[in-house]
Amino acid sequence: MKFLDEAKVYIRSGDGGNGCVAFRREKYIEFGGPSGGNGGRGGDVIIEVADGLNTLIDYRYQQHFKAQKGTNGMGKDRHGANGKDIVLKVPVGTQILDEDRETLIHDFTKLGERFVLAEGGNGGFGNAHFKSSTNRAPRNANPGQEGEERWIWLRLKLIADAGLVGLPNAGKSTFLSVVSAAKPKIADYPFTTLHPQLGVVDVDGREFVLADIPGLIEGAHEGAGLGDRFLGHVERCRVLLHLVDATCEHAGKAYKTVRNELMAYAGELTEKVEIVALNKIDAVDADELKKQKDRLKRAAKKTPLLISGVAGTGVKEALRALVEVIGEAPVSEKAKGAAQAEPWAPQNV
User: Fold this and answer.
1) pLDDT tens by residue, 162-203
2) CA quadruple 256, 257, 262, 264: dihedral positive or negative?
3) Annotated binding residue at 167?
4) 303 is in an annotated binding site
5) 245 and 309 together in one domain
6) CATH code of 143's domain
7) Fewer CB atoms near the end CB (10 Å): N or C, the chain?
8) Per residue in 24-43, pLDDT tens?
9) Are residues 151 and 230 located together in one domain of the fold?
10) Annotation-wise, does 157 bind a ligand?
11) What residues does the OBG-type G domain cover (predicted)?
12) Strands (E) located in the chain
């Protein structure tokens, strides 16, 4: 199963059933009066957060969803049955956006949460409804009300306690594979990670969920690379771990590139607590390491942690720094389950 975090869907609620014009016709009853029943109500379109879902991949293969129409009224005062609702199941963290992809309709953050996106049309009244003291034999009935229809976007934003950010090939996937049971694809070329990854991290008896997104490059917020698509997955994180490659040309410039993209995408991302770490310290000599550390310290205005995901140097300290920010709030079972689920495994491309 592949990861899909965005899908366009057409929904339509059911039309109401038509009212019926009918009269009672029985032997020995000369003036039976009106007996037309009302039409049934159309079905609603409901979005529900379901357990066990981690991706929107189901909506790649089916994009149209229509609720059932209400049944028409019938004679002998028989009212039409209501149409069945249609329920679209989505994972926790899904947002409903209007067709313009900007207007937020609803944001799902809790398991079992339901939202009526489109209400079904009301059923029409039969002629029995219009009987009065002055009109004993009405011959009119109402048609059913039409349902609502619209195109919407479903967008999934991962729910994790901490997020990994950095330039491509900064060692994020290696770090995640070392500290958790996640098995992301790892290679020595940029954009090895093409899909967000989740892992459950256990440090000093405390568990939290760590998210790794594809690397950011300059211009990511405008669509360059893969960053603009996945930056939303760190919006819900409480703390960011910013990894900078010690083997890059200039650690300070690399840090500022990512920070500028975070600010350009959404200003609130830059307000999150950030822990800065210089990664791959085992791949450079002592002099180069000191230069890169000083450059990063000037750019970040804080002393960076020195770590190596491969050698394990400083990894424990970085995790403890994350836990200190996350606090004692327990990791949700949903987030933990999502991180351990099979669908998050990397895909071969």
Assistant:
1) 888 888 878 888 888 888 765 544 444 444 445 677 788 888
2) positive
3) yes
4) no
5) yes
6) 2.70.210.12
7) C
8) 888 888 778 899 999 999 99
9) no
10) no
11) 160-327
12) 6-12, 45-49, 64-66, 86-90, 94-97, 104-107, 114-118, 149-156, 162-165, 197-203, 206-212, 239-245, 273-279, 305-306
Domain span including residue 189:
162-344
The tally of domains found in the chain comes to: 2
Residue 223 known to bind ligand = no
**Are 312 and 230 members of one domain?**
yes
- Would you give the DSSP letter of residue 33? -
Determine whether the annotation assigns residue 190 to a binding site: no
pLDDT digits (tens, 9 = 90+) for 268-286: 777 788 899 998 888 888 8
- Residue 215 above 70 pLDDT? no
Q: Is 256 annotated as a binding residue?
A: no
Contacts of 290 (CB under 8 A, 6+ apart): none
* 193 is known to lie in a ligand binding site: yes
172 is in an annotated binding site: yes
Alpha-carbon gap, residue 346 to 349, rounded angstroms? 9
Q: Are 170 and 214 in contact (CB under 8 A)?
A: no
